[in-house]
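testing teh design pipeline on a random one, pls ignore if ur not involved
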């Protein structure tokens, strides 16, 4: 089990807040009717409310600082490693650049290669192999969700007095009401349940004829907010509303999971202004979407300052996985893309911005993984991590804030036993230790090992986006004629994964294969049930939403394909809980 963290950081008590206590009865007028809420309008409404209360003889509430920091976690969707100004992008991101420059840039930061896995690991602090979500993502028609016996980050924060709110994309399953965000620790939820959808209409088709509406407020379809507002702006308005109406004397946890810059590639017209010269239409649209996202984050930051949260806040920014080049994203100079275990799929843009940081304006090159936010934030919130919660994350606050060494020395990127097997993989290729046909990836110290089929493996330079349509002529292609199923890289010396060292250091390969084997012994069965026809939105008022009912299960046992399999998986999971391995592996040259 990873360490649950050191004692609460009492120095946080010294943080001062802006004297701007909010009135509990304040109401933001028609946020979702008039598009982006202007600060003049919002400020005027607040001042009028304050004046009215003063005339009634009411005194404004005092703003006494809480020792617990306000936590804002912003998760972008499919943002490529290069797609931020400070990584050399041609796309302008002045807000992200400024916040990162004033905070701590995470330059050895890892997530998972797809949406559901990153979100599940953030909210539980556990690797995919310990939740059963190690394969692909949760599909809209699957009777599947983040297992209910997993304690979530918002649940732990609520235990110590936090108000918890989620705005944006959930993508952790919804087939049962118990799977919904409001049942997993959030006081409120406004956003989408699926992995993608139209940015304006909020409709999603999973397949021909299987289409539905996907915008929720708490547990109900948010038809009242269906005003054709672009989702990035709409979500930001909701965040402004939450901050304006909450009392900053009480700690708040805001999880903002933007839909951008995931496909479909859509953006309001004004954001194309600076990118008319980008010939590649996908890259141009992507740039406009990212520009809108950057502006949205600026407005979130302004709201934190205006309403008295900022001085005692911690803002964390992260992408959920690498970019998708065919959809405009760039991971250059890293190899691979979203959906792969090459660095381009899992090494992410990330930073922490906070007045509470000790080493502001610094660069963190220590190993950090998305599972680390769970114990880190609970410790900062002065919460307790139960001893029976077997985490894969570490408390890395001192690493980020003070520049200390990271307690993390390894990352299990994943083991996916049901992904398409590599044709040439075998136990023999894995020295009898591991079947190299299985897709897996692990990092230990400087070394990274991949087996099986790691996914799309090209390097995609900026020149690939120079033409009007997708162009792979500039890509550096990799020949698979050798039939390789094992790769070893020294990521510190070779972050671009150009020099395979598996033939030169077979002993290190064996040690990492043994490490994979040890992790695999703690894995729970994969949860990936077949689609359920009852999920069709036509049977649910045209809305994507919970469809599974316990009474139907009792009446028709075993009728739903995949349901019995899921029940067996759940039983096995309860019998064999995953355990983290935190022993250090000492490797030659590592």
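output:
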């Amino acid at each position: 089990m990873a360490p649950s963290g050191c004692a609460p950081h009492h120095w946080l008590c010294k943080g001062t807040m802006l004297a701007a206590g909010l009135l509990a009865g304040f109401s933001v007028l028609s946020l979702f009717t008039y598009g982006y809420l202007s600060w003049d309008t919002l400020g005027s409404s607040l001042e009028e409310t304050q004046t009215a209360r003063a005339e009634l003889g009411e005194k404004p509430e005092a703003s006494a600082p809480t020792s617990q920091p306000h936590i804002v976690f912003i998760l972008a969707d499919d943002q490529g490693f290069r797609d931020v100004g400070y990584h050399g992008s041609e796309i302008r991101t002045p807000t992200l650049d400024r916040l990162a420059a004033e905070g701590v840039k995470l330059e050895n930061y890892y997530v998972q290669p797809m949406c559901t896995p990153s979100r599940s690991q953030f909210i539980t602090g556990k690797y995919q192999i310990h939740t059963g979500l190690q394969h692909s993502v949760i599909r809209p028609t699957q009777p599947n969700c983040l297992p209910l016996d997993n304690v979530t980050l918002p649940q732990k924060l609520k235990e110590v007095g936090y108000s918890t709110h989620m705005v944006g994309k959930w993508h952790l399953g919804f087939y049962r009401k118990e799977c919904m965000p409001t049942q997993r620790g959030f006081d409120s939820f406004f956003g989408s349940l699926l992995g993608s959808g139209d940015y304006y209409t909020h409709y999603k088709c999973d397949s021909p004829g299987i289409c539905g509406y996907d915008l929720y407020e708490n547990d109900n379809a948010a038809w009242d907010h269906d005003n054709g507002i672009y989702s990035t702006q709409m979500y930001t308005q909701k965040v402004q509303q939450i901050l304006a109406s909450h009392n900053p004397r009480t700690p708040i946890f805001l999880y903002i999971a933007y839909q951008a810059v995931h496909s479909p590639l859509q953006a309001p017209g004004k954001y194309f202004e600076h990118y008319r010269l980008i010939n590649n239409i996908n890259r141009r649209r992507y740039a406009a979407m990212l520009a809108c996202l950057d502006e949205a984050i600026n407005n979130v930051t302004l709201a934190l300052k205006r309403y008295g949260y900022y001085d005692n806040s911690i803002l964390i920014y992260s992408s959920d996985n690498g970019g998708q080049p065919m959809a405009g994203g760039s991971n250059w100079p890293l190899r691979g893309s979203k959906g792969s275990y090459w660095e381009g799929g899992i090494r992410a843009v990330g930073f922490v911005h906070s007045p509470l940081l000790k080493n502001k304006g610094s660069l963190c090159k220590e190993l950090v993984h998305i599972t680390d936010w769970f114990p880190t934030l609970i410790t900062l919130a002065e919460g307790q991590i139960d001893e029976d919660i077997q985490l894969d994350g570490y408390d890395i606050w001192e690493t980020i804030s003070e520049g200390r060494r990271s307690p993390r020395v390894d990352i299990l990127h994943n083991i996916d036993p049901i992904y398409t097997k590599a044709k040439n993989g075998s136990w023999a290729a894995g020295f009898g230790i591991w079947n190299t046909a299985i897709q897996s990836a692990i990092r230990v110290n400087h070394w990274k090992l991949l087996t099986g089929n790691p996914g799309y493996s090209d390097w995609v330079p900026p020149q690939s986006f120079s033409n009007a349509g997708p162009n792979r002529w500039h890509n550096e292609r990799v020949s698979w004629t050798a039939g390789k199923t094992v790769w070893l890289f020294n990521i510190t010396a070779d972050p671009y994964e150009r020099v395979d060292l598996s033939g030169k250091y077979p002993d290190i390969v064996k040690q990492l294969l043994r490490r994979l084997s040890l992790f695999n012994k703690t894995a729970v069965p994969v949860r990936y049930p077949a689609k359920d026809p009852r999920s069709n939105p036509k049977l649910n008022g045209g809305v994507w939403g919970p469809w599974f009912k316990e009474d139907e299960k009792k009446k028709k046992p075993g009728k739903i394909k995949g349901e019995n399999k899921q029940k067996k998986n759940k039983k096995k999971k309860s019998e064999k809980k995953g355990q983290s391995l935190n022993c250090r592996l000492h490797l030659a040259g590592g």
